[in-house]
Amino acid sequence: MKTTKQTHNIFNIKSLQKLLMLTLLSSLLISFAGCGSDSSTSVDNNPNQNNEGNEEPVENQEANEVWMDGNAFNVSNLEVEAGTTVTWTNKSNANHTVTSGERGADDAGELFDSGSISPGGVFSFTFDEAGTFAYFCDFHPGMDAEVTVTEE
């Protein structure tokens, strides 16, 4: 015959097991919630210069968009007019940053700094003044590029 104390211990163990299973299930559901993809892309046949210097259309990429793909920015020197908003989209499986300036410089990140951009995330910045603006990924050495801004 079970005592009252044994019954409570069995109840507590079963309750604890249920709670652990619900916690695990909730964690898995939250993890998978961000794994979807956005299928609402537009096709823009404007040529963009890729890292190899080739002029070729990049399907589904906007004219003022730079993709982070692998450990590279797929447009190493984007040219835009003053007042243009540039958008960086993380198409890789790793986190990246878009940090203004030269790597290691005292003023790095002063003009803009995206912080960590997760896969699928985006960052935008509007360039109001003409000039050449270097930027880099703080996480990946050698992942450097620039935006050249011309007068309107």
UniProtKB/TrEMBL annotation:
Residues 1-33 form the signal peptide. Residues 39-60 are annotated as: Disordered. It comes from the Bacteria. Residues 72-149 form the Blue (type 1) copper domain. InterPro entries: BlueCu_1, Cupredoxin, ET_Amicyanin. SUPFAM superfamilies: Cupredoxins. The keyword Transmembrane does not apply. Keywords: Copper, Metal-binding, Signal. This is Plastocyanin/azurin family copper-binding protein. It comes from Rhodohalobacter sulfatireducens.
